[in-house]
Amino acid sequence: MGVAAVKGLHGGNNEGPSSYLPEGTVVSEAKHAAAYGYGGKDGAGADISERTLHDVYLRPWRDYARAGGRGAMLSHNMINDVPSHANGALMGQLRAWGLEKGFMASDFCDIGLLRRHDAPGVTGWGGFAVAADLDAAAQMSMEAGMDMEVCMYVCCCV
């Protein structure tokens, strides 16, 4: 489905991400990379073997990237205890398959969810608790390969 969507959105051009946006078409961005919905629950952590991760959950992402997909929105979950928004291996793999000129985007303030549960300003569910504060969360996500934080001006995790 991802390959067909790329071909349709890119006006039939499937030369890959190295061919820049043709006039009159749009850029495709797929979501949620990857293993989202693992175990039948959106946002649930995926405790999964590397083989199953690559053969089942990442294969469509590989095909999407090779077909010319130009962006990926990371999933709200963790894969083997690493939050997707801080997962340099995941983002690196997507880029290696063809998204090197594309972009990685967060989904709905998820970079903020990398903070500790007891960080100042965190109310309710604090998130993944892998960064000391919002600055550390942003740095961690950028170093992993994130290009853009997608967030409303006011949201539960700012």
List the helices and strands and how they pair.
Blueprint: H1 2-9, E1 30-33, H2 50-57, H3 59-67, E2 71-74, E3 78-79, E4 82-83, H4 88-99, E5 103-105, H5 134-144
Parallel strand pairs: 1-2, 2-5
Antiparallel strand pairs: 3-4
Helix pairs in contact: 1-3, 3-4
How does this model look, in words?
The chain is an alpha/beta fold and 158 residues long. The protein has a domain at 2-107. 30% of the residues lie in helices and 9% in strands. It has 5 helices and 5 strands, in the order αβααβββαβα. The protein has helices spanning 2-9, 50-57, 59-67, 88-99, 134-144; strands at residues 30-33, 71-74, 78-79, 82-83, 103-105. The strands form 2 sheets. A 3-stranded parallel sheet has the order 1-2-5, with helices on one face. A two-stranded antiparallel sheet has the order 3-4. Strand 3 (78-79) and strand 4 form a beta hairpin. Helix 1 (2-9) runs parallel beside helix 3 (59-67) and helix 3 crosses helix 4. It is globular and about 50 Å long. It starts with a helix and ends in a 14-residue tail after the last helix. Mean pLDDT is 79; it is low at 154-158.
